[in-house]
From TrEMBL:
Transmembrane segments: none annotated. The keyword Ubl conjugation does not apply. Residues 36-90, 119-134 have a biased composition (Low complexity). Residues 32-152, 276-298, 397-436 are annotated as: Disordered. This is SLA1 homology domain-containing protein. It comes from the Bacteria. It comes from Allorhodopirellula solitaria.
Length: 436
């Protein structure tokens, strides 16, 4: 290697430049200044002097570079986002602080902690290699369409019409069921509710996949429907805020370095409720390799409810998921492009069956997220047809304590009944109920 030779040649030159800088400081010191016209001309040094591009204004010996903030400085202090002060608290009337008991709750949003230089980006066990490969690809070739002016680009009207039709179809699915009784709506759309008395979170969605390897049980629409059983009409950050509003406690996401540490947090039971369709509107069996094709769904009186774990099957043992989900809580990360804070689980990792550091709910054991090592798949025989509207019910389970927990108005271990799933624009009717 030639590096050692270059290093030894560069050291004398740096030493010479340093000595010349010191000589200049001494020459212009107090009491030694001379006018430019009276200054004696010194002979040029024998060694090669720095080039014109290397010359710079002499710096004062007292000048110091700004110090980085220490742990005790104000900019280094970061409040804990899981502390009670940063979480919405219910008041005596059963709503979040600041809400009137007679007024609907406003939209709850998670607030990112104050930005620090140490904020990590969301990662999983194999994300570092993937991000490095992605950076290399971006530096080698420009994006397709870089040479096209933005004003000259127009989307095909047929594509736009198809997108709008899909949006309308999804909205019809979202509006299949009416609001659960005694629950407060969060946000503008009737897709997410909290029941402060029963300590439940309700979120609507639809069946998006029945075959194939799984990384998630549920994801927000428009994210990871190709590897989730259910897609829901709410962001992960909104569901997180709803859980905080009913008193759930988040923990920590999974960690891999220096060793594997499973995610922690309060146990959250997940129930799936749905109604069978009227025979005339039953979704046609679809090829699961194709995207879901939402269509009009007319619900019947037949009500079903199932523990969501019964919809997830271990591919090796062919048994249903046994461990419950824990409220890991995901994380915030800063986008270097726009310097904005983002909630990581909004990208799709809402209720996971593979470990992700960005997961909102995760399984508390080692479950690989590598494509060739995924553990779970849908329990197809127990899942209704794709496109079936469903309502997820998230229920925090009591935290084990030394003393018995006080009794709750609604038993958190029992399945919800058909009262939580009224049909839109019609009164609930007596119907047969099946529980898986």
């Amino acid at each position: 290697m030639h590096t050692p030779n270059f290093t030894f040649r560069a050291q004398p030159r740096r030493a010479l430049m340093l000595s010349l800088a010191i000589s200049s400081l001494v020459a212009i010191g107090p009491g030694c200044q001379q006018k430019a016209s009276e200054a004696p001309v010194e002979p040029a040094p024998a060694a090669k002097s720095p080039s014109a591009g290397d010359a710079s204004e002499p710096q004062s010996p007292q000048a110091k570079s700004p110090q980085a903030p220490t742990a005790s400085s104000p900019t280094a202090s970061t409040p804990d986002p899981s502390s009670p002060a940063s979480q919405p608290q219910p008041n005596e009337d059963g709503g979040a602080d600041g809400d009137s008991p007679t007024q609907p709750m406003g939209k709850l949003q998670l607030q990112p902690p104050p930005k620090t230089d140490a904020d990590p980006a969301p990662t999983n066990a194999s994300s570092e290699t993937a991000s490095a490969d992605s950076s290399a690809e971006e530096s080698e070739s420009p994006n397709v369409g870089d040479a096209t002016e933005e004003d000259d680009y127009e989307i095909d009207p047929e594509i736009l019409a198809h997108i709008e039709a899909q949006k309308r179809a999804l909205r019809r699915i979202a509006d299949t069921y009416a609001a659960p009784p005694e629950a407060k709506q969060l946000g503008k759309q009737p897709d997410l509710w909290v029941d402060m008395n029963a300590k439940r979170v309700y979120v609507d969605g639809y069946v998006t996949m029945r075959r194939g390897p799984l990384e998630m049980f549920a994801c927000p629409i428009g994210t990871k429907e190709h590897e989730s059983v259910v897609a829901v009409f709410a962001k992960s950050s909104e569901v997180h805020a709803a859980l905080l509003a009913i008193g759930a406690q988040s923990g920590t996401p999974v960690r891999w370095n220096p060793e594997f540490l499973p995610p922690t947090g309060q146990t959250i039971s997940v129930w799936v409720a749905w109604r069978s369709p009227e025979p005339s509107s039953a979704p046609e069996p679809a090829d699961d390799s194709e995207p879901a094709s939402p269509q009009e769904f007319v619900p019947s009186d037949e009500f079903h409810v199932a523990d969501a774990r019964k919809w997830v099957r271990n591919m090796k043992t062919q048994t249903e998921l046994e461990e419950p989900w824990v409220f890991a809580g995901s994380m915030f990360w800063s986008d270097p492009e726009d310097d904005m804070e983002h909630y990581s689980a909004d990208a799709g990792d809402m209720i996971c069956v593979s470990n992700f550091s960005s997961a909102m709910l995760d399984v508390p054991f080692n479950s690989s997220a590598d494509a060739g090592s995924l553990l779970f798949e849908p329990f197809s025989d127990r899942i209704p047809e794709r496109g079936t509207p469903v309502r997820l019910v998230l229920v925090p389970q009591p935290i084990p304590r030394d003393e018995p927990a006080p009794p709750q108005p609604v038993d958190p271990t029992t399945a919800p009944d058909q009262a939580i799933l009224p049909i839109a624009d019609s009164a609930p009717k007596d119907a047969a109920v099946t529980t898986q």
